[in-house]
Amino acid sequence: MKIKPQFISWPFFVLMLFIFSSCSNDFDGDGIPDALDKCPKEGLLGHVDSLGCNFVAPKMELGNVRLFQDNSSSNKGYLKGNTGFKDVVSDLISELSNFAEDRFKINFISGQIDPYTKSSKEYIKDFNNNEIPSGTDCSELHGMLDLILTGSDSNDISILISDNILSFCENPKRRNKNSAEMRSYLKDVLGNYSKQNFALSLHAFTSEFEGTYFVSSLGDKGIYCKGTRPYYVWVFGHEKIIGSFESYLSKLPRFYKEKKKSLFFGQSQLIKNNVEFFYLTGRQGNWRLNAKQQTLSNISFSGDHPIKFTIGVNMKGLPPHVQEVDFIKANFQTGYEYLSLSKVENRKDFKLNGNKPKEQVSRDNCTHFLTFELTELVSDQELTMRLNNNMEEAWYKDWATDDDSKPEDGKTYFLNHLVDAMIDTYKVSEKPLIEISLNLEK
After folding, report:
1. Are the CB atoms for 375 and 338 separated by under 8 Å?
2. 341: closest CA among 350, 352, 351, 330?
3. What pLDDT digit, counting tens, does each position of 353-411 carry?
4. Residue 89 and residue 161 in contact, taking contact as beta carbons nearer than 8 Å
5. How many domains does the chain have?
6. Which structural domain range is residue 300 located in?
7. Are 254 and 278 in the same domain?
8. Fewer C-beta neighbours within 10 Å, C or N terminus of the chain?
9. pLDDT in tens, 114-142
10. Contacts of 43 (CB under 8 A, 6+ apart)
11. 285 and 143, same structural domain?
């Protein structure tokens, strides 16, 4: 008997070809393949739902991009010779000039704001020839922040490049005994800013330095310093626009390559129950799943073996440092003593059990995968699991010093008090990054 060949209709073939060829494409970079993305050109402002659409309000129109170069005396050492500082700043200005065009404004800042009136190309030339105007011998960081923030419109992005050394210019020696007073100043400045839903980032770099360093314990007497010193790039903007601008910065090759560390404040939209449950992958033990109600029921244990299950979450809109596996492991709380987070995997490391199409879609919708172990269920539980934004072990403490008499050590005077003020202002410890409701039933 002859078997007639079966033919696939041409339209169906084209459709399937499109779907499978586009699975690996992600036009707007939100972690959702274009074939599944209901908002493929929306771009990423915050975290996205399983359809690829942002939770946050529509994108604000970007206003001016204002750059402020700290030209106080303590920053001159970064300009002597060919330094990494010059390379990063020159490249950043060139990129921002092309990005924002006539909306890009360059300013000097120390005791006051002095606009630079020539072109970006001329600035880069003057900057690299060390022909920029000198600012004050002493500048107060909290004063500079106040000048920048009070002059910002709601849709502006403002950038400050500075060594971040805290100062009381009228009496430098006060700094050693009044860290609480300095933090109070900073919280006053940043408090009004944060209440208006403005966010900020702090990026840390290092560079060659040769010049005068001012020591507070000596009344800001200048001493010669040659070595590697840190400097910082601040980014300020409304929470609706700063995320997309940070995404742009992360794509600048030199900025990304040279940046050592970062901190983010006020940019984290809470991810609440935007999760995917996996029925097969990571499963161990006896239980039934109602994914819509986020419930595991009919739970029964076999001997001493724990129950295991896996939940996926899309963390694409959260700051990079909180997406690190070690951060998640250290700061995730299940809310139940017999339930623990046993494993965290990124998408590239997460392998599915079997070829169930729904689980493939769930995998594509998520960036991180959390596997849990339940060892005992005394009674039914209604849990709210959380990823907390804990900065107790953050890098900034290793970059800080309360003794500025040894600048060659490459630390920043009072940086810890500066960042602690930011943490207090934005109430970082009180705001979870992720909340997941979970019901466990016998």
Report:
1. yes
2. 330
3. 988 899 999 999 999 999 999 999 999 999 999 998 877 667 899 999 988 888 878 89
4. yes
5. 2
6. 271-390+432-440
7. no
8. N
9. 999 999 999 999 999 988 888 766 778 88
10. 28, 29, 30, 54, 59, 244
11. no
